[in-house]
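Please fill in the sequence for the structure shown.

STRUCTURE ENCODING:
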């Protein structure tokens, strides 16, 4: 009898250790029920299975986008990734053409987004999304960069997504920030922008290439992509140029090329003077280089707000296009 009681106590303690309690979980579950129509008890049970991961917090504090351009660029602009993009495009040419025409997005940019995000599906992330979003919802504010509200909403959307698309929430993996699939969609973006291009009744961003390719195209389309229009050109900077116009955050074009020219920033390419544009800078080994950017550059930053990311996508897309057309 003593052995049976001892075994029972061990099992109870083991179960208690496996269930993790997170600060604010009760409030989170109540909000999820009130605002997202989720079952409060089911939310709490799911959170008990979620694990805090210090490696996720560590990764958030040292993103690749914190590097200077001359160190960031070699991560993505490589012969392997360019050749991989050419191969991916050729193997899925009909699908990419279909998505490009349906959503009005240049095909090379669709390919480059998937290339930068996951190397064409080669690395979709190894963190459990449940752990990533729970860690960032309940613990990331301790770093001094409080984005807990953003990640809390993403965690709630992740739970909604599980019900809508039949995703096993305790199994699915993604990035340290909770992005999923070949296109690395956050849960809210998955819900809002993913499409069922193969028309099988599910939006599957892991194993359905039509859905992946179509969803990336739809994301860019919904944010205002202009097919065939410029993305960015090197800026010619005059002496005394107004450096207050140079931005690395708000890249939405607000001035025309004519206005930028009057402020000391121009381009050599024949683009209409009334075209809206912005100016950004990237750090090379020999100092800052300046670029005039257009609406399409801004659209790429809706995927990732860093100008480094947008430039990497653009350069990769042009290299892939050139190789594909040879």
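FILLED IN BY: designer on duty
SEQUENCE:
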């Amino acid at each position: 009898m003593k052995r049976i009681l001892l075994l029972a106590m061990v099992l109870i303690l083991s179960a208690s250790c496996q269930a993790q309690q997170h600060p604010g979980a009760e409030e989170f579950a109540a909000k999820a029920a009130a605002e997202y129509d989720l079952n409060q008890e089911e939310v709490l049970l799911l959170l008990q299975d979620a694990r805090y991961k210090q490696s996720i917090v560590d990764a958030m504090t040292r993103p690749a986008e914190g590097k200077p351009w001359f160190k960031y660029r070699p991560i993505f602009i490589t012969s392997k990734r360019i050749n991989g993009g050419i191969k991916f495009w050729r193997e899925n040419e009909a699908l990419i053409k279909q998505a490009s025409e349906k959503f009005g997005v240049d095909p090379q940019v669709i390919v480059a987004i998937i290339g930068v995000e996951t190397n064409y599906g080669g690395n979709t992330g190894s963190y459990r999304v449940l752990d990533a979003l729970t860690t960032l919802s309940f613990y990331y504010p301790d770093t001094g960069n409080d984005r807990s509200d953003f990640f809390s909403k993403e965690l709630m959307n992740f739970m909604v997504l599980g019900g809508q698309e039949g995703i096993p929430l305790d199994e699915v993996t993604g990035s340290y920030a909770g992005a999923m699939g070949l296109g690395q969609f956050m849960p809210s973006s998955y819900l809002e922008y993913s499409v069922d291009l193969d028309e099988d009744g599910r939006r599957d961003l892991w194993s359905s290439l039509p859905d992946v390719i179509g969803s990336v195209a739809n994301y860019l389309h919904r944010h205002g992509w202009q097919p065939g229009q410029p993305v960015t050109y090197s800026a010619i900077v005059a002496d005394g140029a107004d450096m207050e116009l140079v931005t690395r955050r708000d890249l939405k074009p607000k001035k025309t090329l004519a206005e930028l020219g009057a402020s000391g920033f121009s381009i050599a390419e024949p683009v209409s003077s009334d075209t809206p544009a912005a100016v950004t800078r990237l750090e090379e080994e020999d100092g800052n280089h300046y670029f005039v950017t257009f609406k399409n550059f801004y659209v790429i930053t809706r995927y990732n707000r860093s100008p480094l990311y947008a430039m990497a996508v653009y350069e990769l897309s042009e290299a892939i296009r050139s190789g594909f057309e040879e």
